[in-house]
Amino acid sequence: MAILKVARMGHPVLRQKCTTIEPDQITGPEVQRLIRDMFETMVDYAGIGLAAPQVYQPVRLAIAGGETDRQGRPKFRVLINPEITVRPGAGQLGMYEGCLSVPGLRGWVERPDRVNVKAYDETGAKLDFDLDGYPAIVVQHECDHLDGVLYVDRIEDKTKFGFEEEANRYLDPEELE
Ligand code: ZN
């Protein structure tokens, strides 16, 4: 296992469309090692999610958190080749987002709050599930990375973009996690 370096905004790896992983490669050693290293990296950086291009691997693999299991512990999902669709009746949910590739900054982004996710998991099994609220935001943020999109691209009101410390102090602190 290894803690990987996280690419920062400005590096082209964060701006490319990532390639699909062949389903029969998922249980192979390369993908399995990447998943383990991404988990270790995400935990070390205290992230709520991580996408493969953030560790310089432009493939369609992301880890997304924001959910809790029955015991109330944080739950993370491995998503390979994910497809997200907005569900009928979705509203917009806004919050200050942050990103390990944009360290120290936060910005206000609004996204649909009800989505369906189809993906493969780390065992190669097909997943099809719905997410509402905060975990729906996290999964959209992570899957954006697979298309070379960063949350900063989605900030409409640039006055709601700033450094973490200042954002906590001045920019609608109640909305922060
Ligand atoms: Zn991110």
Summed up:
The chain has 177 residues and is an alpha+beta fold. It is built from three helices and eight strands.
Question: Describe it for me?
Answer:
By secondary structure, the protein is an alpha+beta fold. The protein has one domain: Peptide Deformylase (Alpha-Beta Complex). The protein has three helices and eight strands; from the N terminus they run αβββββββαβα. It has helices spanning 29-44, 134-145, 164-170, and strands spanning 49-51, 61-68, 74-86, 92-97, 105-112, 114-120, 126-132, 161-163. Strands 1-2-3-6-7 form a five-stranded antiparallel beta sheet, sandwiched between helices. The chain has a three-stranded antiparallel beta sheet with strand order 4-5-8. Strand 2 and strand 3 form a beta hairpin. Zinc ion binds at residues 99, 101, 141, 145.
How do the strands and helices of this protein lay out in sequence?
Blueprint: H1 29-44, E1 49-51, E2 61-68, E3 74-86, E4 92-97, E5 105-112, E6 114-120, E7 126-132, H2 134-145, E8 161-163, H3 164-170
Antiparallel strand pairs: 1-2, 2-3, 3-6, 4-5, 5-8, 6-7
Bound molecules: zinc ion (ZN).
Radius of gyration: 16 Å
CATH topology: Peptide Deformylase
Architecture (CATH level 2) name: Alpha-Beta Complex
For the report, how would you describe the main beta sheet?
A: 5 strands, antiparallel
Cα-to-Cα separation, first versus last residue: 30 Å
Structural class computed from helices and strand pairing: alpha+beta
**SSE arrangement, N to C:** HEEEEEEEHEH
What's the pLDDT, averaged over the residues? 95
Q: Give the total of domains.
A: 1
Report strand %. Answer: 25-35%
Share in helix? 10-25%
Q: What name goes with the CATH superfamily?
A: Peptide deformylase
- Low-confidence segments, given as residue ranges, are none
Number of strands: 8
List ligands, each type once.
Answer: zinc ion
Count of individual helical segments: 3
What's the CATH first level? Alpha Beta
User: If strands are numbered along the chain, what order do they take across the biggest sheet?
Assistant: 1-2-3-6-7
- 3D shape: globular
